[in-house]
Amino acid sequence: MRIQATEIIDTFAEAFEMWAARIIITAETHQWATAAAQSMTGFATSVIGCKCEAGIERDLTADETPDRRPGISVLLFATSSEGIGKRLVERVGQSIMTCPTTACFNGLTSESDVVVGGQLRYFGDGYQISKQLDGRRFWRIPVMDGEFLVEDRFGVQPAVGGGNILILGKDMQTTLRAAKAATKAMREVPGVILPFPDGVVRSGSKPGSRYKALFASTNDPYCPTLRAIAPETKVNADVNSVLEIVLDGLDLNAVEVAMRHGIYAAARRGIKQISAGNYGGDLGQYQIRLYDLIKDQ
Q1: Is 292 left (phi over 0), alpha (psi -120 to 50) or beta?
Q2: Which of 51, 287, 55 is nearest to 183 (CA)?
Q3: Strand 129-133 to strand 136-143: parallel, antiparallel, or no bridges (unpaired)?
Q4: How would residue 4 be classed by pLDDT, with cut points 50, 70 and 90?
Q5: CA 273 → CA 26, 166, 180, 201, distances in Å?
Q6: Rounded Cα gap, residues 18 and 33, in angstroms
Q7: What is the arithmetic mean of pLDDT over 143-164?
Q8: What are 223-241's pLDDT values in tens digits?
């Protein structure tokens, strides 16, 4: 299939079962809420090396937040609900509680939850106070600019990680422009984050390595500089740059919709192919076929 001049490869993205939480950060100004969100989502690009994946879902107006202040919605993903709980305690404690004027609320209604504020309360050294509002428990932890308000428990739910598209372009500039257009379109979909720097990754990986200590290594079939020497190449002679966009979503539909938006936004003159990363279907629970995403459009 083709979209404009771009060939869509008949393949699939291999995605995985994950767990997710939504964190609502508010602050006196949007600037401070953003600072906390950027700190919390730092070094959270891949569960392989970071133990979680996280990103900013969207900005929130004061009318959309529990305390009527500017806010940011953040999504965090891990491979288990237990892992979500550990990462939330670490990141809420180190990146949100430390940021001036912030408060932190659960953003998911779910049957399962993990204790976050109930763990962080001990930082109050006995001066912390609990309060109940509308059946939800909060902790008021004294800090040097006043109080840090944090919800006791955060909802967690099954989710989908590892959705992706690969953009194969004639040169770096063209491929970067296509990737930027794709990330902008994908971020319009609720319930989705793009965990890599500004949504784009250049160091796509394959499982395993010739070095026993490594779980993953460079995706050599998609490296243009290895076209002549790698055992297998998927980079044609007219392709000189490949960029990947990885996404996680609260459910499969959100991931599929975002991938579709990304494919259509990236397809253009100079983008030779759009493909997807997979492991032959042996590792992930979901196979998202690119043809299925675009066949009825």
Answers
A1: alpha
A2: 55
A3: antiparallel
A4: very high
A5: 41, 8, 16, 17
A6: 26
A7: 98
A8: 999 999 999 999 999 999 9
Quick one: tokens of 9? 């490869």
Q: What is the mean pLDDT of the chain?
A: 96
What whole-number distance in Å separates Cα of residue 166 and Cα of residue 256? 15
**261 in helix, strand or coil?**
helix
pTM exceeding the 0.70 threshold for the entire prediction: yes
Residue in the structure block whose two tokens are 């967690």: 156
Neighbouring-strand partners of residue 12: 289
Distance CA 215, CA 224 (A): 23
Could you please report the per-residue DSSP string of 43-87?
Answer: T-S-HHHHSSEEEEEEEE-GGGSTTSS-EEEEEEEESSHHHHHHH
Closest CA to 21 of 138, 159, 188, 197: 159
Which one-letter DSSP state was computed for residue 201? B
